[in-house]
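hey so i finally got around to running both of the ones u sent me last week. sorry it took forever, my laptop kept dying halfway thru and i had to restart like 3 times lol. anyway pasting them below in the order u listed, first the sequence line then the structure token line for each. didnt double check formatting much so if smth looks off just lmk and ill redo it

first one:
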Amino acid sequence: MKLIKSILVSGLAIFTLSFTSCKDWLDVNVDPENPTLDAAEYQLELAHCQFYTNSATQFAAWRTGMAMGDWTRYANGGNYWHVSYWNLVEGQVTTPYQWFFVGAGATLKDMYAKAMAAENWHYAGAAQLLLAYGFMLMTDLYGEMPYEDALSANALPVYATGKTIYLGCFERIDEAIELLQKSIDPSLPSLAVGDTWNNGDVQKWVKLAYLLKARWANKLNKKAAGSYKEGKYDVATIKECLEKAMKSNADNTIVDHTDDNSSTHDRLGWDEPVDYSPLYSVCGMNAGYMVTKALYDNLTNFDGLGVEDPRADHIIPWARSRKTAATPAEIKWNENGTWRRSLGVDMLSNINNEGGPLRASWSPEKHFYISSESAARLGDTVYVECTSESKGYAAKKDLLYRRGGVAYDASAESGSFYSRVSSPTYVGTYMEACFIKAEVLFNDGDKTGAFNAYKEGIKAAIELMNEKLKVWVAEDQTLNDCPSFTPMKQADIDNFLANGIGNASTLTLGRIMTQKKLALQFSVEIFNDMRRYDYNPDVFLGWGIAAYHYVSAAAMRAVPEGKLYRRWRQCSHEYNYNSKNLIAIGLEVPGADNSAKNWNTKDDAWTIPVWWDSDQQ
């Protein structure tokens, strides 16, 4: 890690920011051949750090999300198809690590030091919160990681245990809360100068910090009861933090991405604009991603209650199509029969074993069809991909992806709500606060309080989605023709909340956690929650390890029978350049096979619990 930083920080990663417009986030305002941290003003570093920290988090969310049972890809569709049946591969683990450490870490350290020296407590607090956010992501994914030594001059930084990192992040967030609530000299730069997340609203930063503290404290549910400062499960602190976190959607921290191919692109080799959603980069603009039957069923018939979730039309992709005599009856069509909604790929069936699903092709003569001699595969046209398009970035007609090219409107596909070019990133939200509260109260035996929080979380999630749907159709009224974009009707929302989610007497932990999973689509918190509850299918409704996992020898080596997916292996940079320290920390990791040359490169290192995912004190 330090080696990469040494190479890239000097010439790529650390830039003085000119904030004359949002398009200049990553531009330099000193000699472009020799940018330095010393020349950067702290207030102009924040947007840079927000961009890289958010991108690291969203890339991790996509890569973990593909293994959580809601999404898959066409058969033999590369790394992320493999991940969907737990054939875990090294290719998934590097980018979040690089984008946090190289893109944000050193700059955040510099920003904090400069802001503290200037007594601008708000920038210092934001820097500490982002450092805590990034380091917590690292320990969520990898378990152990250089921490105290990570941003030092040491070219081979020493590793810290997961507990050390976890408690260190709590210390950082407590300091961030204290700093953000202090007054600053009005002559100093206000937080609004550099803040792309909350537009300088300090109270939103404070609420975000309390939500993150509640989120992180709640992850310790496998620990003994006690103080979070000692790494124990602290229900009182969780409840206290939730009281100080978001109280409505107006308090949310949201990155509102735009469809704009600005002149400012990232500096870490992808060369993509800073404006658009990271999930569009890894999913929306790419081919072949499909919803699973588990996700489809949870959206269309949640826990067998028989009422479709109004979000179903917006998460499950649609395709322009035409009915034929062979069209399966279970496919949903819009009112005039011009759009059809995808079905879900049943990962618990033998579909992967049988070479499916295949990606559909399109032609003016055949429309959507499968190019295969296998009769079993011809029906794979029922699966619509979540690929979408962009007007600003790709200069296309609209947000619909046309399989036959721009001239063929009949080949249009809608994409999915969370992975479009201008889909929002939900950094911290009221809906998440509600679901954490519902879980804690339910486990405390307060089913009435838990149900009220659960229902409020679902309502907040629906309303938040509807806000963006209204923006999209206001920007382009032709999109209103596609059911994926048409805003939800209040009558459908009310009916679902009244009849589709159960009531206090029938509330289960499974309903709470599954609705949270639906609301937090593409969040690392789904991976965290599923590990916390050991992937229990009674807690995550409809979930199961893909059937193909048990057929694939590589998948069975990565996650053998009786074990579960618990962490990421370290990326190759660490075991190639810092192996001595990586090997040394293995002596402090329960479950690590230290008889091997490097415990972290063993096939099944993916199954070793990270510290918070264990009862280790």
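and the second one:
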Amino acid sequence: MKKLGKAQTLGMMTLAGYLAMAGNTMAQEVRLASSDGTVDMVGDFVAFEDNAYILATALGQLRVSASRVSCSGEACPDLTQAEVDIAISGSDEIGTGLMPLLFEGYAGSRNAAAAISNTAQEGQLIAELTSDEGFGDQLTTIQVTGSSATLGLGDLLKEETDIAMASRRIVPEEAQALRNAGAGDMIDPAQEHIIAIDSLIVITNPANPVTTMDVRQLFGIYSGAITNWAQVGGPDLPVEVVIRNVGDNRRDVFESSFFGSADVSMTKDAEIVPNSNAVAQFVNTNPGAIGVVGYAFQRGASTINIINQCGITMVPDAFSAKTEEYALQRRLFLYTREDTIKPDVEDFVAYATSAEADNVIRKAGFIGFSVDRREQSIDDVRATALQNANADAYEQGFMRQMLEKMVDYDRLSTTFRFRTGSAELNERGLVDKDRLIKYLETQPAGSDVLFVGFTDSVGQFDTNLSLAERRSAEVAAQVQSFAGDRLSGLNLSSIGYGEIAPSGCNASDSGRRINRRVEVWIKSPE
């Protein structure tokens, strides 16, 4: 175990401290508040029992779980320093929004129970894992300090934390500083662990017939230039924009996506609410409302398909988020050092990135990386775009071939991507290989698995077609080699379609990266 400084230690109320405090503080006022704003109460401190605060309020005595709130006030339980096995710091959104459920799931995977409580430090919590479903020995003590990705990575650099949480990818300067300090290659899959996707969806009232808008229309609505739904093909109804508080992480992601560096700000007439639940409630009760929420907070509202700058329709579902073909999203990361990582840390990270963790990730409102399967029909968004594409007769021939092939196959969410001009997988692809193989092992013998290659539009069409074929053949060979005889009952093959069927805008670096891909299609035996 490591001994941490005061700002990083877990809070534990000792029996002696409580008894010494009880006589002096029973009638003193304290405040209990949760980080998401759903709990904020003031009352007289009565006791701390079974990991819960008991307060005397105007409504009588109330019991509030310490796992939900932080306590402020002189009467709050005295805290002493203790040792922890795993220290985690960084992104507050991961720390408060995802970690508590991950700890519960991790404990369950070890036939243990997790007791989770807040400390006196804002944004900090502690999880104690006890074996035999809580009746055995203490296994692991984990402390999480929520702050920011920058601070978490700084703690990792100073060796003051074992795991850094980040709701953005590490930047080159941070990675270089850690490398120079002996921490290793921070973008290696062994140290950069993608645990979830935070996907944002635009929602409207269920009675609103508008289901698709392009980015210019959304820009107009959120900037205040469009004030009536009739301006975007809807009913004659005033637009009511509802947004979250300034500084909210999800609001920041949305604003940067739509406004960027443009000299335009959010409409001043927007209704401001504290969280995604409140956004969904406002939208569902106001016919003209529009809002942005996390993927799990739709709450019966209608979702909006978004047409990007290149005319490609992005569908706001989990499948599109997993394939990176939906723009309003960010990935959530855990970073570890190569030189100081401990077995307890490796074990927890292995769980957090496993398919077993997907259920708790989904419960927390995020999207995991389990393999999903989706039917491809002649009427879906991509097939429709291929049929309506403005291309010459030569390219249209390949589009027809793809349409004829794709309707016989379902698509899996696993999608491999490449660097410019390369047939080598990126770092994420190396991790996705293992997850795909585990999924394919569950499929019936005789299933056909087709690896389908695509490129961006840079270069000549035939050159890109050849590159796409090489990429898909290379991925098929790597998967087959990595799996050995585990997939012996399946039929693996490959094909390439070059630059047709783009998923992103070829006008941008990020769009071209999305288009350099190999998809996985599957067909069950007749």
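quick thing i noticed on the 2nd:
Residues 461-483 form the longest helix (23 residues).
anyway thats it, ttyl
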